[in-house]
Amino acid sequence: MRPGFLKTIWQLARSCSWYCRLGVLSSGAIAFTALPSPAASDIHVQFGPVQTRVTVDDLATFAQTGQVAPPLEPWRPLLTPAVQQSLQRRLNVEPTLRDRFLADLIGTSKGRPFVTALAQIAPDLTPAMIQTALQTAEAHPEGVTAVTLLESLPDDTLTLDGIALMRLLAQLGVSQLEQTALSRILDRELLSGGGSALTSELVPAQPGPHVPQRWAVAFRDHERDRIVPVDLYWSEHTTGPMIVLSHGLGADRNFLRYLAEHLASYGLTVVALEHPGSNVDALIQSDGAILSPEEFVERPRDVSFILDRLADLHEHSFFLRDHLRMDSITLIGHSLGGYTGLVLAGGKVDPIALADFCAGLEVGASSPAEWFQCAATEAQFPPESLADPRITQLVLMNPLAGQLFGDTGLHTVKLPTLFVTSTSDGIASVSDQQLRSFNQLAGPRSLVAIIGGTHLSVGDPENINPALTQVPLMPEHPPTETTALRTYMKGVVLSFAMQQTPQATTYRPFLSAEYAAQFSTSDLPLRFSDRLPARVDRWLTNRDRLARRLTPTFKGIASLMHLELIDAQYRLANLRRNTVAQAPIQPLDLAARIAPRPHGPFPMANQSPFTRASDRPAESPPSAPHSAN
Q1: In what order do the strands lie in the sheet with 157-161?
Q2: In angstroms, rounded to a whole number, what is the distance separating the alpha carbons of residues 178 and 563?
Q3: In this structure, is the dihedral angle defined by the CA atoms of residues 383, 357, 359 and 283, taken in order, positive or negative?
């Protein structure tokens, strides 16, 4: 029971999408549809009157040996080593969670796009077959893999609609290419710090002078019948402001433990709370939907409730007196915790805009976060605001925001915000969920871009289930590759929190591109800026306009073309600069040789520079200076 279970959930729902993305059309389409024996032996992909045949044995041979049999030759360019590994990789999902997820997917309006897509691709298969299929595959000695799912099909032949399948593949491919192009552009155009190093005796990424202590406690909200666990971090010399940590869906209060301990060592009080309706226990032990609509209301209330209880303790408890500063609170939210922070900071959810978006949601053009945010369409938001004025700063990490606030709901968020985005986030897309939200904030803001970072890159590796880092085609970085990133997060988050103290000026230099550059690695380059590059900003604006006029597929294609144009403009300008730099004669020298400037005074406006010297009037000798009388 570790954080990041959101990723395990989506592994089940998106297995078709990710396999199709690399071209394993058959295995992707079957990932949800295996049934008991007799096993399927042939897969027929129908393209109108034309039909191609692939055998399951040929796929199994490729998965085991890498050899491409003659029937698979047309697909050879797509059968990469990554595809081979994905065919063999086991899908480990707890049965209870699996059954809940499938029931939620099939039995609610959120799952209608998936059911429709499945019916178009494989007309002979029904959603009712899904649960039995997975149970059958689990009994296989190799567990649930793409190949064993194929081998569990009920009939000798499975027929797929190739046109529908290719349409889904096109959506997935465009989405992936768009993310790759955007990552490349952000890496290049955001400030990199120029390689200069900061000179300071202060090293905010190193442990502070105080020994952090931790107190675990749980508070019961009798009005809501809800118990909220809390880990309180502080030191004997606590003088700094308070920090509140809000985790994401399927996580717990330990997700950012390394950061909590670091901040407490500098005299800050850290409150790491756990949302009981969307933590790991809720996913495994509760009934109903994976993400309850009520969580979009109860999560902000959890934070306000805990702050109320801590205010009481601060006033009446000798143990915590002088350890809690309730006048300046920085909220740090990851994923769904980012949504929680935005609501507490005054963000206004737009149920109408969200419902319109979710009505047109398509399987291939959507990230997991976009599916999960649609649960909020069934939430009962109170007429009064959920904002809490005690929250004075925000740190948002890979936030789930997307369409929840419509086009204007974040314009009311005016608090200073440190926004952390990862360009290879397979859960909350960098464009729709993150950069779009960053651009809508009205207050002072700074952006940290983790080039190549994923949804869990900022988390504490000791509190992330290792199995979650092995999701096929959505890999997480191993802990050794994120060490420098976590060190940077310690320094930059501390420096941001200290902006509410008299030491703000001392820590301000660390909120810079130069400081981020010190922790950049080849695996995870880091960029820091207070705004998006102008060309990326225009791209985001145009992308939103296209979303209102085009289908998701055509919107993705147009968006990708715009990004490729930005990239081509850069490469053309770079080629021009290199050509000029390597030329034996520079442009100014060449111009001087072609049209040398004449010596002497520059000709008057009514005098041609080409007038012969003999035709020019004689110059009068200079007059003698007058003497002063």
Answers
A1: 50-55, 42-47, 157-161
A2: 7
A3: negative
SS3 content of the chain, % helix, strand, coil (to 5): 50, 10, 40
158 residue type, one letter: L
Residues 377, 315: contact at Cβ < 8 Å? Answer: no
Q: Nearest 5 degrees, angle CA 107-CA 108-CA 110?
A: 135
Instruction: Return the structure tokens found at 379.
Output: 């939430």
Of 32-46, 130-144, 293-307, 394-408, least confident by mean pLDDT is 32-46
Nearest by Cα to 400 from 250, 519, 602, 507: 250
* Tokens at 485, concatenated: 């990133």
**Range with the largest mean pLDDT of 140-154, 184-198, 299-313:** 299-313
Burial of 351 per CB tally in 10 Å (0-12, 13-18, 19+): middle
Cα of 562 vs its chain's centroid, Å: 20
CA distance 330 to 307: 12
Helix (H, G, I), strand (E, B) or coil at 140: coil
Q: Are 206 and 587 contacting, i.e. CB atoms less than 8 angstroms apart?
A: no
Report which residue type is found at 419: F
Fold of 208-525: Rossmann fold (3.40.50)
Locate the domains of the chain by residue range: 5-162, 208-525
Distances in Å between the alpha carbon of 137 and those of 264, 400, 417? 48, 33, 47
Calculate mean pLDDT across residues 555-573: 84
The widest CA-to-CA distance across the chain, in whole angstroms, is 125
Query: In angstroms, how far is CA 468 from the centroid of its own chain?
Result: 17
Beta bridge partners of 242: 269, 329
Beta strands at 226-234 and 269-273: parallel, antiparallel or unpaired: antiparallel
Q: Which value, to the nearest 10 degrees, does the dihedral of the CA atoms of residues 458, 459, 461, 465 take? A: -130
User: Angle, to 10 degrees, between the axis of helix 5-21 and the axis of helix 81-88?
Assistant: 130
CB 414 within 8 A of CB 346: yes
- Give CA–CA dist 182/188, Å, rounded: 10
Give pLDDT tens digits for 1-30: 444 433 433 343 343 333 333 333 233 333
Report the 10 Å Cβ neighbour count for 3: 27
Alpha helices in 38-145 (DSSP H): 56-65, 81-88, 95-107, 112-121, 130-138
- Classify residue 624 as exposed, middle or buried by CB count within 10 Å of its CB (0-12, 13-18, 19+): exposed
In 3D, which of 15, 37, 33 has the Cα closest to residue 24? 15
